[in-house]
Each structure stands twice: as structure tokens, then as C-alpha cells.
Amino acid sequence: MATSTGAANTADAQRNVWLLVASQSLGGAAPPIIISLGGIVGQMLASDPSLSTLPVSLYNLGLALSTIPAAVLMRRLGRRAAYVLGALLGSVSGLIATYGVVQGDFATFCVGAAMAGFYGACVQSYRFAATDAVEPSQRAKAISRIMVGGLVAAVIGPQVVIWTRDAWPMAPFAGSFLGQAGLALLALPLLWLLRAPPPQAAVAEGTARPVGTIARSPGFVVAVTAGIVSYGLMAFIMTAAPMAMVGCGHTVGEAALGIQWHVLAMFAPSFFTGHLIARFGKIAITALGLVLIAASGLLALAGLELLHFWGSLILLGVGWNFGFIGATAMVTDTYTPAERAKVQALNDFLVFGTVAVASFGSGRLLNTSGWETINTLMLPLIAVVLVMLGWLTLHRRRATASTTVTQ
User: Fold this and answer.
1) Is the dihedral angle over the CA atoms 173, 177, 178, 179 positive or is it negative?
2) d(Cα 221, Cα 127) in Å, to the nearest integer?
3) Membrane-spanning regions, if any (predicted)?
């Protein structure tokens, strides 16, 4: 009977992973729509040009602020119920944004963009949901598979913009946000089919430590710091790069193509990142990701030609993939099943809170200090995290050696 139950659990876990990949492909398409069009629509609707990028910043802020409430709902209602609610709110947010565009109401459009942040917080947690019922050795591969859905989303989002931006003749881009609402509705039946553990099952599996105790543990501190630096630097550079390219005389089309290659580079390695982590370890692949991000900064400092920008963005994307997936896998080693929800929420709050701050500050720093300064400042941050990863490796080796000697 135990073998039969274990096989059923494994089958459910694999089924959930593929449902989450499909849901990620649909839900992950919302950010490209909001990020690519938020500033353009903002320019159309805002009375003050300096507020044109506010909708994008509010989306990132809404995502960061929603991580903890979303985790509370997952803990009380279960992942499936929380994810279904997130998709419903994602659809409603698209409808509100559409209404704002049609009515020419900037405030309403901003509300829609901010509300989409809750759906974004749910989508970001899919990578953790994929690890709930798999063996620890398979967690990195499960996370990597979910990130493959991001590659599909990177194609779906821009295509929705292209095919729907003129669908509403009297209100440009309104159709794209209506498309965003439709994608969220398409994800609903997939999320409803999830076979997630009951909301109280994790609590029954053990006593949870205080979140402060977990947050002070070396493994958590290093993993979260690596995730913050990987994602934060990526968001910071990606936001500033198009403006820097145009400022250096390159066309808007060339800047858009650079971002497209960057997004593809972010998710394409997900096909094999999990296998690399299984072979070389979480810390090693996380460190490799940070080294690649540093290399992207050095290439950007080497010149201002088109290939410098494009090459830098591609390296940045691959580095983010290794660094972020590796750091996420490291976080999964720091908690017990009873502690899962609150630790995942704390991690995402810290990571995406940093992304929100980065999106607010990148344009201003670019205008005041320049492209070269931005790329120079990333290098010492990466060096600090690499030292932390090296220290954690030595710390664990000493702990293992000490345990072996004691036995």
C-alpha cells in the first residue's frame, strides 16, 4: 500500500508540474504586456510626462506587496484556491486597465496595473509549488521546468500585443489589456485541475520554527541575498538598457530587439539548468550565474556599439537564469514542510521588493550618473555575494566534517 501511495503521489507531482508549466506560460505573459505597454499608455494618458512609467512601477510594487497576503491565502485555503483567485483577479485587472484606456483615465489604468501584481505574485510562486511533492534531489529540475513556461510566455505576451494593439480602433492598446484578461481566464481550468496538498497538511508534518530564526540561518541569508542580487540587477539593467541604447544613437527597434534576445536568454537555459544543478550543485550554478552577470557589465563597459549592448543583455539573461533558479533551489533547502509557506513568502517579498525599488530608481540613476556607472556599480555587489557563497560552501564542509568525526 505504501508503494502504491508513493507512486500516486509521484504521479500527482509530475501532473502538477506540467499544469504549472502551462499556467506559467499564460500567466507569465501578463508582465511583458504591462511592461512593454505601460509606459506608452502612460504617455498617452498622464497629464505629467514624468508619471508615464508609474503603471509599470505600480505593477512591480503590487507584486512585492502581494507576496505575503498570497502566501497567507495559500496556507489557509490551499494553493489551488489561492491560484484560482489570483487568476480571477488577473482577469479583472486586465478589464480595469482596458476600461482605463478606453475612458482615457490614467488613475483607473494604474489601478488595473497595480491589481495585476497579486496575480503576478501567485505566478511567481508556481516555481515553489512545483517542489511541494517531489524528492529534494528533484526540486531544482522541477523549478527549471516551471521556468520553461516563462520562455513560452515571453513569446505569447509580445504576440498578444502585436495582434491586439489596434483591435479597438478608438482606443489604441486597449485590446492588448483585454487580451491579458483573456489569458488569465484561460489559466483558470488548468489551475483548478491541480492536486495540491490540503492547506493544513504541512502543519501536521512538524513544528514550525519562528520565521526570524529561519531568516537568520546562514543558508537562508546567502540564498536570499543571491536571489535579490541576481533578480535586482537584472531588472535594474533591463529597465535602463533601452533608454541607454536610444541615448547612444541606436533605434527604438534595435533596443526592442535587444530586449527580445535578453528575454529569450533569460528562459531558454531552463531546459538544462536543473540538470546542471543536479550535476554541479546549487551553489556552483548560482555562482556561475553571478559571474555571467558580472561579465555582462564588463562587456557593457567595453563599448557602446550595438553588439556591446546586445551581447551584454544576452549574458545578463543567462546569468539571471542560473543565479535565480540556483538561489531558489537553495531556499528550498532551508525550511521544513511546516515552514514552507512563510519562508517562500518572505523570500519573494525580499526579492520582488528589491525589483520594485530597482524599477523606480533605474531611470533616475541613468539620467544622473550614466550607463557606465550603472554597470560599474554592479561589480562590487556581485563580488560580495560570491564571497558569501564561498563562505557557505566552507561552512557546510566543516559542519559535515565535524558530524563525521563525532560519529
Assistant:
1) positive
2) 20
3) 56-74, 81-100, 106-126, 146-164, 170-194, 219-239, 259-278, 285-304, 310-331, 343-362, 374-394
End-to-end CA distance of the chain: 35
Please give the Cα distance from 392 to 384 (Å, whole number).
12
- Give me Rg for the CA atoms of the chain: 21
d(CA 213, CA 220): 10
pLDDT at position 5 = 47
- State whether CATH 1.20.1250.20 applies to domain 1-196: yes
Contact present, 78 and 197 (Cβ < 8 Å):
yes
DSSP collapsed to 3 states, 122-164: HHHCHHHHCCCCCCHHHHHHHHHHHHHHHHHHHHHHHHHHHHH
Percent of the chain with pLDDT over 90: 38
Helix 174-192, helix 30-45: angle, nearest 10: 150
Whether 1-196 shares its CATH topology with 212-407 is answered yes
Are the C-beta atoms of residues 168 and 174 closer than 8 Å to each other? yes
Q: Which residue has the cell 520562455?
A: 151
pLDDT one-digit tens code per residue, 226-262: 999 999 898 888 877 877 887 888 886 787 778 778 8
Q: Kindly report the CA angle at 208 between 205 and 214, in degrees rounded to 5?
A: 130
Query: Are 27 and 63 within 8 A, CB to CB?
Result: no
- Written as one letter, the residue type at 360 is F
From the candidate CATH numbers 2.10.109.10, 1.20.1250.20, 3.40.50.720, 2.10.220.10, the one assigned to the domain spanning 212-407: 1.20.1250.20
Q: List the domain boundaries for the chain.
A: 1-196, 212-407
